[in-house]
Automatic annotation (TrEMBL):
Domain Coenzyme Q-binding protein COQ10 START as annotated: residue spans: 75-202
Gene3D superfamilies with a match to the protein in the record: 3.30.530.20
Spans traversing the lipid bilayer: none
Leader sequence segment: none
Protein name: Coenzyme Q-binding protein COQ10 START domain-containing protein
InterPro entries (UniProt xref): COQ10_START, ORF3, START-like_dom_sf
One matching Pfam family: Polyketide_cyc
Length: 209
């Protein structure tokens, strides 16, 4: 839709209520030798529509909390024995309280499937994940990260204490599962206690490894 504006010498507007065309006149002195009818300049003014308003709604996803737990303990075995013992992933359920099974993939030995089962906070807790062992540093560091399932990562570091003893430091980082979000503040100290118990059992297990 558009409005047409026509100008001549007069300033009297010729506008009727029933018409959408507005006519305004300009001075004929600009065109002194031409008849009035030939001095009419016609041009169109576009009638623009008001801009439309768009509302964009963004779906927000909850930001999950990550927690870190670190425990360490002196073990009365040589550092090479402690390292070899911890490298035996499928034996970990024998001394870590909450790990029920670890299975190494036959065709990909750096990958392993883990299962966690434990009763805590008035419920039976079960999780699983696929973990990849990263490139280790012999007698110094073992570290991993989950590829699917429960998001977690961690590292075990070994520090020599003497010819027949060492310090084992275990760090585990994990995303708080939504199931346990209501008890997130209590989860970290609870898991640190479990990890410490695990290292105590590991110390006994390593002596007979």
């Amino acid at each position: 839709m558009s409005a047409t504006v026509v100008g001549s010498i007069s300033t009297r507007p010729a506008l009727t209520p029933s018409s959408s065309t507005c006519r305004t006149t300009f001075a004929s002195a600009i065109f002194p030798t031409a008849p009035l009818s030939s001095n009419l300049l016609s041009f169109k003014l576009p009638l623009t529509k008001p801009p439309s308003t768009f509302h964009v709604f963004k779906r927000s996803s909850p930001v999950m909390e990550w927690q870190d737990c670190t425990v360490k303990m002196e073990i009365d075995v040589p550092i090479s024995v402690a390292y070899a013992c911890y490298s035996d992933r499928e034996a970990i359920p024998k001394w870590m309280p909450f790990i029920s099974s670890v299975k190494i993939l036959p065709d990909k030995p750096d990958l392993s499937r883990w299962s966690l089962k434990y009763k805590a906070f008035g419920r039976d807790i079960e999780f699983s994940w696929l973990a990849r062992n990263m490139q280790p540093i012999p007698n110094q560091k073992i570290h991993w990260r989950s590829m699917e399932g429960l998001p977690n990562r961690g590292a075990v570091r070994f520090f020599p204490k003497g010819p027949s003893s060492c310090v084992v430091e275990l760090t585990v980082s994990y995303e708080v599962p939504q199931l346990l979000a209501p008890v997130a503040s209590a989860l970290q100290p609870f898991l640190e206690g479990l990890l410490q118990r695990g290292l105590e059992r590991f110390a006994t297990f390593a002596k007979s490894y």
